[in-house]
């Protein structure tokens, strides 16, 4: 199994675990006289088994990704960087303050154009890292 296949499997397992938790939550305590659709003890056993398999799979993925760990971290942090950079206020010039019925003149150290240029540069790097990771994930076996 490649890392790419393992990542898909990990997502399937996580969805299954979440579904089991929902079933347990909805079937543990029910109004007296009603029938349970699922047996809580069986669900708990399934949850235990699925969680152990999930942990084992995540561990294998983590170990197999050691050669590209820094790239994975870089990808994550740069995505967060871009997300935060997009929220930087770049107001420039005269802005009407409706609450105080006044005008405020803003000056931005980083203009919208400068922020956009930084974002574009980082997004190019993100694309390059993602391509490397995709290649690694599709060719590396667990």
Would you write up a description of this structure?
The chain is mainly alpha-helical. 68% of the residues lie in helices and 7% in strands. A two-stranded antiparallel ribbon has the order 1-2. Strand 1 and strand 2 form a beta hairpin. The chain is flat and about 65 Å long. The model has no long low-confidence stretch (mean pLDDT 96).
Write a compact overview of the structure shown:
The chain has 4 helices and 2 strands; from the N terminus they run H-H-H-E-E-H. It is mostly helical.
Query: How many structural domains in the coordinates?
Result: 2
Q: Estimate the helix proportion, in percent.
A: 55-70%
Cα distance, first to last residue? Answer: 6 Å
Strand order of the largest sheet: 1-2
Work out the number of β strands: 2
Structural class: mainly alpha
Descriptors:
single chain, 142 residues, mainly alpha, 2 domains, two-stranded antiparallel ribbon, 4 helices
Layout of secondary structure:
Blueprint: H1 3-28, H2 40-64, H3 69-86, E1 93-97, E2 102-106, H4 112-139
Antiparallel strand pairs: 1-2
Helix pairs in contact: 1-2, 3-4
């Amino acid at each position: 199994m490649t890392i790419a296949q393992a990542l898909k499997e990990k997502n399937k397992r996580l969805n299954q675990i979440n579904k089991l938790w929902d079933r347990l939550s909805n079937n543990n305590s029910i109004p007296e006289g009603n029938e349970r659709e699922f047996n809580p003890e069986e669900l708990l056993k399934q949850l235990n088994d699925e969680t152990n398999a999930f942990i084992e799979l995540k561990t294998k993925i983590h170990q197999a990704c050691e050669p590209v760990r820094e790239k994975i971290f870089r990808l994550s942090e740069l995505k967060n960087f871009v997300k935060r950079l997009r929220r930087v206020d770049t107001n420039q010039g005269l802005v009407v303050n409706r609450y105080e019925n006044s005008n405020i003149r803003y000056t931005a150290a980083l203009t919208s154009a400068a922020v956009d240029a930084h974002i574009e540069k980082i997004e190019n790097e993100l694309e390059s890292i993602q391509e490397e990771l995709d290649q690694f994930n599709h060719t590396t076996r667990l």
